[in-house]
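Retro notes, item 3 of 5
We never archived the inputs for the adenosine-5'-triphosphate complex last cycle. Fixing that now. Sequence and ligand:
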Amino acid sequence: QSIEVSELISSVAERMRKKAEDKGIDLKVSSSDNLVLCADGARLEQVLVNLVDNAIRYTPAQGHIELRLRRLGNFAEIAVSDTGVGIPKEELPHIWERMYRVEKSRSRERGGTGLGLAIVKQIVEAHGGTVDAQSEGNRGTTITVRIPVSN
Ligand code: ATP
Ligand code: MG
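Structure as it came back at the time:
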C-alpha cells in the first residue's frame, strides 16, 4: 500500500481535534514534505491515533500538541509532542512494555490498559522502523517514530 504520510497525519488530526479541544488542548500539524511510505495504512493510522490519544490523555487543559513530519535520510520521521505531565527518566525505557503504566499518571488519570505503546512499537518495527521517547518530567513528552520511505 502506498501511503501519503502528511495526508494521513492531517486526517488523524482532524479526527482527534474535537477530543483535544473538548479538553482545552490545542492540536497542530506541521508537515513539510510529501512523503510516500509503503505501509499498511490502517496500522499506521492506529500508530498515530494511539500517540495522539496518549498526548491528549496525559496533557492538562491549556496544553499544546504538535504533530510534525519530516524526511530524515531514508526515513519519514513523525514526532508527536505534548506539553503534558511528562514521563520520569527512569520510567522511559519501560513505557513500550505491555501493560506498563507510569504510577503517577495512573493515579492521576483513569482509563487505559497500557497496551497502546506496545502496539505502536510492534507496528513500527514491523515496517522496519524505530521508536523513541523523550521527556523532561513535567515539561511534556515527545514520541518519535521513524519509518523507511519507499523511494
Ligand atoms: P492504552 O493506550 O492501552 O489505553 P495507556 O495509555 O496507559 O493505555 P500506553 O499508551 O502504552 O498505555 O502508555 C504507557 C504509559 O506511558 C501510560 O500509562 C503513561 O503512564 C505513559 N505515557 C504514554 N504517553 C505519554 C505521554 N504523552 N505523556 C505522559 N505519559 C505518557
Ligand atoms: Mg495509550
